[in-house]
């Protein structure tokens, strides 16, 4: 095993190619997570609501309880990240294994269902390509190391969170909170930053956006962002330390403002309508992971 790692260390292009292939396969699974995880959460919420309604309000609001007893959308009763298998949402034909190959499968099908010719969203191969490319870059940047392994895991979760937030305006605690604790644990031996900086980073990341949230709400009476955004910034603070938080906030705010203005100008977004902020935090955090220290050093040298 050590000899194989040595070979990969001296052949980073080979390591990157292997990493790309592996990550593209995981990217196919991330498409499943992005689509199914919110449905699974909604079902869990529905079950909790049903339990509450049936136990405490059966007589008062029975009509509402009856409506909530109906399944969410058209999804089957047993529905998780594994079951049922992938199928066309229109004709329900099972997707053949070779059509599920990352990127290649979509190209083979020319972006359409093999049975009913319904268009298949280009988002699927895009996420697979994005995941593969990002992890291949990490492989070349870090080489075969623990830093690469942890950075890859973080990248997978950030991509899943980005897709879910774009679709649902939601950053699930089931993904952000384990990532927060993992960031603190892996930095006990200083993988990316010191334990002290990681703890301060987690607290500062959460409290900085929490403060902005409440200041904005007290001034305008409106909520400017969700609690998931606080937790995601806390995750990045736990992973990379408090020193990179100003850069992450600056980059995410800049990109978010540019995209928001562009959407308003193109009339794809009306003023006052919310846009998800999580994707910009995730992108800024990934950039900071790779180049954050260099950017901070360059900035300080210009002062």
TrEMBL record:
Residue span, Prepilin peptidase A24 N-terminal domain: 22-142
Source organism superkingdom: Bacteria
Domain Prepilin type IV endopeptidase peptidase: from-to ranges: 153-261
Membrane topology: Multi-pass membrane protein
Acetylation among keywords: no
Name of one Pfam family that matches: Peptidase_A24
EC number: 2.1.1.-, 3.4.23.43
Sequence intervals crossing the membrane: 12-34, 148-166, 175-192, 198-220, 232-265, 277-300
UniProt subcellular location: Cell inner membrane; Cell membrane
Record keywords, A-Z: Cell inner membrane, Cell membrane, Hydrolase, Membrane, Methyltransferase, Multifunctional enzyme, Protease, Transferase, Transmembrane, Transmembrane helix
Catalysed reaction equations from the record: Typically cleaves a -Gly-|-Phe- bond to release an N-terminal, basic peptide of 5-8 residues from type IV prepilin, and then N-methylates the new N-terminal amino group, the methyl donor being S-adenosyl-L-methionine
Xref: InterPro entries: Peptidase_A24A_bac (IPR014032), Prepilin_IV_endopep_pep (IPR000045), Prepilin_pept_A24_N (IPR010627), Prepilin_peptidase/N-MTase (IPR050882)
Family: Belongs to the peptidase A24 family.
Function: Plays an essential role in type IV pili and type II pseudopili formation by proteolytically removing the leader sequence from substrate proteins and subsequently monomethylating the alpha-amino group of the newly exposed N-terminal phenylalanine.
PANTHER family on file: PREPILIN LEADER PEPTIDASE_N-METHYLTRANSFERASE-RELATED, TYPE 4 PREPILIN-LIKE PROTEINS LEADER PEPTIDE-PROCESSING ENZYME
Protein name, UniProt field: Prepilin leader peptidase/N-methyltransferase
């Amino acid at each position: 095993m050590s000899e194989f790692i040595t070979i990969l260390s001296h052949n980073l292009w080979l390591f990157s190619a292997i990493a790309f292939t592996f990550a593209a396969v995981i990217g196919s699974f991330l498409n499943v997570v992005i689509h199914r995880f919110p449905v699974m959460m909604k079902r869990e919420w529905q079950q909790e609501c049903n339990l509450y309604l049936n136990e405490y309000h059966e007589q008062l609001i029975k009509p509402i309880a009856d409506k909530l007893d109906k399944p969410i959308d058209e999804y089957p009763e047993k529905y998780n990240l594994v079951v049922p298998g992938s199928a066309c949402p229109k004709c329900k034909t099972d997707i053949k294994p070779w059509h599920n190959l990352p990127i290649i499968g979509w190209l083979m099908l020319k972006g359409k269902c093999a049975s009913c010719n319904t268009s298949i969203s280009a988002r699927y191969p895009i996420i697979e390509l994005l995941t593969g490319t990002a992890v291949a870059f990490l492989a070349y940047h870090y080489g075969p190391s623990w830093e690469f392994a942890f950075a890859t895991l973080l990248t997978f979760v950030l991509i899943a969170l980005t897709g879910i937030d774009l679709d649902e305006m939601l950053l699930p605690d089931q993904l952000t909170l384990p990532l927060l604790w993992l960031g603190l644990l892996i930095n006990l031996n200083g993988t990316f930053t010191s334990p002290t900086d990681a703890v301060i980073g987690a607290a500062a990341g959460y409290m900085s956006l929490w403060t902005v949230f409440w200041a904005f709400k007290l001034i305008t009476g409106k909520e400017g962002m969700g609690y998931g955004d606080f937790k995601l910034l806390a995750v990045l603070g736990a992973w990379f330390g408090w020193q990179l938080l100003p850069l992450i906030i600056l980059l995410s705010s800049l990109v978010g403002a540019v995209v928001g203005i562009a959407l308003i100008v193109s009339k794809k977004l009306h003023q006052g309508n919310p846009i998800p902020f999580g994707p910009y935090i995730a992108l800024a955090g990934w950039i900071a992971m790779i180049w954050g220290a260099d950017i901070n050093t360059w900035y300080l040298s210009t002062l």
